[in-house]
Amino acid sequence: MSQEIRANYDQIDLLPQCLEDWVPVDHPARFIREFVDALNMGELGFQRRESDEGRPNYAADLLLKVWLYGYLARLRSTRELERACREHLSLVWLTGRHAPDHNTLWRFWKENRAALQQVFRAGVKVAAASGLVGLVCHAVEGTKIRVASSRGRVEASIRAMEQAVEEAEAREEGEYRLPEGLQEAQRLRAAIRASLARRQEVKRDHLHPREPEARMMLCADGKEIAYNAQVAVDGASELIVAKDVVNEESDNRRLVPMLDEVKENLGEVAEATVADGGYKSSVALGEAGEKGYAVLVKWGGDASGKRPGPYHKSQFRHQAEQDVVICPRGERLEFEAVKTNRWKRFAVRGYRCRSFRQCPVRAECSRNRQGRLIKISPYDAAVAKQRAHQHDPQKQKLLKQRKVIVEPIFGVIKQDWGFRRWTVRGLENVRTQWAMLCAAFNLRRMHRAWAAGKLALA
Fold it and tell me: Among candidates 294, 316, 312, which has minimal Cα distance to 303?
C-alpha cells in the first residue's frame, strides 16, 4: 500500500535552494523582471533616493517590479502589495526576498507619478520595435469610471454631521464646548461651505468635496462623480497604444489629443482611426484633417438622432468662388455677415435666403421669418467628407470593427479585473493609475509573445 504524501516541517535542505528555481522559465514574473531591467530608469524620470543615515533605500527598479506585477495580479493597494511581498512566492522571487512596506510603496508612487506614466509609453515602444503593433486600423474609445469616494456615502455623512452640529449648538449647558468628534464635523461643514463657494466659481453644482477635479458623468448605473478614461487600441495586436484620463464629460474634444499621443508613441498614426458618435465634432475633424490624420467617426443623423432630411444643411452646396450657397431647389443664398459660432470658438460665414416668401417649400425648409440662414464654418468641408465616408462600403466595414477592437479592453479591465472605481484621488493620481492599468494590460499580452519567442527585450 502506497504511503500518503504529507508535509515534513522538520526537513532541512542539504544544499541551499537556488532562487532562480522558484518560478518557471515562462512565468510572468520573469517577464516583468526582464522588461524592467531593460528600461533606462533615469531617462523615464525615476528619482533615486539617497541617504547617509539609516537603512539603504529600495532601488526604483525593484519597487517598479512590485507595482507592475501587483497590477498584473490585481493587487492595487499598498497594503495588499506589502503582504504579497511576504506571502506570494512569485513576488518573493521577484523582489529577491525583500519585503518593502506599504509606506515605502506609496512614497515611491507619489514621488514618481510622471515616471510611472512613462512606463506605459516605454512598453508600447518595445512592442512596436518587435513588430507587434500594426498601423492599419486603430480604435479610440472612452469609458467613465467612478471616483474612489462614494457620492451617496459622502452626502449622507454630510447630512448626519450637520444635524449633529445643529443639535449640539441647541444644547448649551454651562460652558459651551463641542465634543471632539463634533468639532471635526464642524470643520468638515466649513470645508463643505468652501466647496459650495468653489462650485459657484466654476459654475458647477456637483463638485465632490474630496474630489474637486472630478465631474458628474453618465455612467452605466446612472449619473455619478467620475473621470473619463480614454484609450486608443491597435486592431491587429489588441494592444493599447495611447491612453489618457480627463475630467471632461464628453469625448468630442478628445479625438485629436489621442491621435497626437499615438503619433508620439509610435512615430505615426494608423491608416485609419475609427471612433463612435461621442467623438462627433466638426472642429475635431477639421483639426485631424489639418494634421493628416485619417479618421472615421460614426456620424449618424443630427443631434436628435434623426437622419438628415431633404432640406438639412448638408443638402446645401457652398460655392466658395461665387461666395454663395445653393439650396436643394437651386436658389442662391447670398452672403450676409461673418459671425462667431455658438461657443465663440471660430468664425462662420452666414448666407441668407432672400426669395423665401415665394418658396413653395418654405414651411419644410425653415420657420425663420427673415428667411433660411446657412452658416458655413471652416470645418464644413471636413464634415462633408466624413458624411461621404458613411456611404462607402469599405469605410462602413472599418466602422463596424470598432466594437470588436476596443470594447473588449474595457470588458477585461472592468469585469475580469473588477476595476469599476478608482482607488486613488486626484486627477494626477488617477492618470497614473490608468497608465499602470493600461501598461499591465499590454504586458499581459506581450508576455504571451515573449513566452513564444516573438518578443525580445534588449
Answer: 312
Neighbouring-strand partners of residue 146: 226, 421
If pLDDT is split at 50, 70 and 90, which confidence band does 391 have? confident
Annotated domain spans of the chain? 19-111, 133-147+219-292+392-428, 151-202, 313-386
What are the DSSP calls for 161-216, one per residue? HHHHHHHHHH---SS----HHHHHHHHHHHHHHHHHHHHHHHT-S--BTTBTT-EE
- For residue 356, give the nearest of 325, 332, 320, 324 by alpha carbon: 332
Q: What per-residue confidence (pLDDT) applies to 102? A: 95
What CATH homologous superfamily does 133-147+219-292+392-428 map to? Ribonuclease H-like superfamily/Ribonuclease H (3.30.420.10)
Query: CA dist 77 to 85, 103, 105, 432, Å?
Result: 12, 11, 9, 14
- What single DSSP character describes residue 416? I
Note whether 136 and 146 are within 8 A (CB).
no
- Report pLDDT digits (tens) over 335-379: 999 887 766 678 889 999 999 888 999 989 998 989 999 999 888
Give dist(CA 243, CA 435) in Å, integer. Answer: 7
Residue 29 half-sphere exposure toward CB, CA atoms < 13 A? 21
User: pLDDT tens for residues 108-117?
Assistant: 999 999 999 9
Mean pLDDT of 114-130: 96
Among residues 9, 277, 340, the alpha carbon closest in space to that of 142 is found at 277
* pLDDT tens-place string over residues 60-117: 999 999 999 999 999 999 999 999 999 999 999 999 999 999 999 999 999 999 999 9
* CB proximity list for 52: less than 8 A, separation 6 or greater: none
Q: Give the cell for residue 82.
A: 506589502
H/E segment holding residue 326:
strand 324-326
Grid cell digits, residue 309: 432630411
d(CA 202, CA 200): 6
Q: Over the stretch 233-243, which tens digit does the pLDDT of each residue have?
A: 999 999 999 99
What is the C-alpha separation between 245 and 254, in angstroms, rounded?
Answer: 10
For residue 83, with 0-12 CB atoms within 10 Å meaning exposed, 13-18 middle and 19 or more buried, which class applies?
Answer: middle
288 against 302, higher pLDDT: 288
